[in-house]
């Protein structure tokens, strides 16, 4: 069940909120926990063992959190932290990466001329495992470092891990950031109103913008990368760049809105990233909770920038290799992470000062860098990725027999031009600034109502594509 579905908006959400607000304050956490487990059960209905895995994850992490907090000897605390983190990573590696490692080992064995082939284990990825694993690890690390006290109530802890607004695709919410709201939070009609407005904006970005822009990117795949012109290739990757932004930004806003309705302050995940002048700045504005997680639990523990330039670059390499691999068990994601490391490294060596001094140059650089980097992210097949680059850059060596329809970019430009223009305008952040200025006016209410019912119409017509980040 996704947020941009009629089942969620007209069935699950109103029934849940009715029960939630009727519950006495002391039972609200249990109500949210139970509702979140039902939400998760819907998502894993065909693989119910994943619900048991999720429940076991909550129980084991609760146990390790308690044991770490109650251990006085440092070596015992460290030992229990190690086993807690190992437990979480074991399941993530098993389900997400075993198939990748096995296929690559088999490839090496074939190159060596050996007939031995290992069986490939590639199960369906448990819903939300990348996100709830990171939340559990951050909780254990914070309890170990004593930056957060452990949660004595299992229900409260389980509610934190399973909270459905951010369970499946984030934002990644650390325990310490919402500890006070878990224990005590306020509810009001004003908060409900603000939450519904935020949810509606996110829904509109997802359904009316991201889904439509995704259609243009899908057209390129349908036609075949070898059969598209250079202008069409640039149009398509621009569409994907906007699609992935509004898809994930829309989901994050919906999660934030739902959290606000229930009294939680879910952190911002995006801050106009496409206005950045450098890739360094971009990653301070894009998926900010993931960036903060890697900074706090990987980069700084490795030493951050405290041990000289060489170690700083080593730590950056570790972070970006892991960031790429976290997004998917595929070589294209590893290459994407390494490209991010390379660009940010070059910027640290002095390029960033030039880009910030000449904003026009910075924007041109980012328009090019963002588009190229998303090709590595979007195209998982390396041979097809190579084909796509030959279409983006026609001066590269071309394969024989590649032909395309010369006017394809005009055809698809007419079909998707309005969506592209709207996407570019919304990427500037100006519509959101305008909304924040007039959000309490009657005109804003009318616009949001129109957006909501427009989304409902599109979903009724079957235009309710799944969120891109669900697969990560």
UniProtKB/TrEMBL annotation:
Q: Does the keyword Lyase apply?
A: no
Q: Which UniProt keywords apply?
A: Acyltransferase, Cell membrane, Membrane, Transferase, Transmembrane, Transmembrane helix
Identify the main location: membrane
Report membrane topology: Multi-pass membrane protein
Membrane-spanning segments: 6-23, 51-69, 81-100, 120-141, 153-178, 232-252, 310-327, 364-389, 409-430, 442-463
Q: Which InterPro entries match?
A: Ac/AlaTfrase_AlgI/DltB (IPR024194), AlgI (IPR028362), MB_O-acyltransferase (IPR051085), MBOAT_fam (IPR004299)
A Pfam family for this UniProt protein?
Answer: MBOAT
Where does the record say this protein resides?
A: Cell membrane
Q: Which family does it belong to?
A: Belongs to the membrane-bound acyltransferase family.
Descriptive protein name: MBOAT family protein
Q: Which organism is it from?
A: Enterocloster hominis
């Amino acid at each position: 069940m996704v947020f941009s579905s009629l089942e969620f908006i007209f069935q699950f959400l109103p029934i849940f909120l009715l029960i939630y607000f009727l519950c006495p304050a002391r039972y609200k956490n249990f109500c949210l926990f139970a509702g979140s487990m039902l939400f998760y059960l819907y998502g894993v209905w065909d693989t119910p063992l994943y619900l048991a895995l999720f429940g076991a994850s909550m129980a084991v992490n609760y146990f390790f959190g308690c044991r770490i907090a109650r251990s006085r000897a440092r070596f015992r605390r460290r030992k229990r932290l190690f086993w807690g983190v190992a437990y979480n990573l074991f399941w993530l590696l098993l389900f997400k990466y075993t198939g990748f490692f096995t296929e690559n080992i088999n490839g090496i064995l074939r190159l060596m001329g050996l007939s031995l082939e290992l069986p490939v284990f590639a199960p369906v990825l448990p819903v939300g495992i990348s996100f709830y694993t990171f939340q559990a690890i951050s909780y254990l690390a914070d309890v170990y470092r004593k930056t957060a006290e452990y949660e004595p109530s299992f229900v409260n802890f389980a509610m934190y891990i399973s909270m459905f607004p951010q369970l499946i695709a984030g934002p990644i919410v650390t325990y310490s950031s919402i500890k006070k709201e878990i224990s005590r939070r306020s509810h009001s009609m004003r908060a409900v109103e603000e939450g519904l407005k935020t949810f509606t904006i996110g829904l509109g970005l997802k359904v009316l913008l991201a889904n439509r822009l995704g259609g243009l990117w899908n057209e390129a795949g349908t036609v075949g990368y070898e059969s598209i012109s250079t202008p069409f290739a640039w149009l398509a990757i621009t569409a994907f760049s906007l699609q992935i932004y509004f898809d994930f930004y829309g989901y994050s806003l919906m999660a934030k809105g739902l959290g606000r309705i229930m009294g939680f302050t879910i952190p911002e995940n995006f801050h106009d990233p496409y206005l950045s002048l450098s890739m360094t700045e971009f990653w301070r504005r894009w998926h900010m909770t993931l960036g903060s997680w890697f900074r706090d639990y990987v980069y700084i523990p490795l030493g951050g920038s405290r041990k000289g330039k060489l170690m700083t670059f080593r730590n950056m390499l570790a972070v970006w290799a892991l960031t790429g691999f976290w997004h998917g068990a595929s070589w294209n994601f590893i290459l994407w992470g390494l490209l991010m490391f390379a660009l940010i490294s070059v910027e640290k060596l002095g390029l960033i000062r030039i880009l910030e001094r000449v904003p026009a140059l910075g924007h041109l650089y980012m328009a090019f860098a963002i588009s190229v980097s998303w090709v590595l992210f979007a195209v998982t097949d390396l041979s097809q990725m190579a084909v796509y680059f030959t279409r983006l850059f026609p001066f590269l060596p071309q394969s024989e027999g590649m032909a395309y329809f010369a006017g394809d970019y005009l055809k698809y430009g007419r079909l998707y031009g309005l969506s592209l223009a709207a996407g570019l305008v919304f990427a500037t952040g100006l519509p959101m600034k305008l909304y924040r200025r007039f959000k309490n006016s009657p005109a804003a209410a009318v616009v949001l109502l129109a957006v909501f019912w427009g989304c409902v119409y599109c979903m009724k017509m079957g235009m309710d594509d799944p969120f891109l980040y669900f697969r990560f």
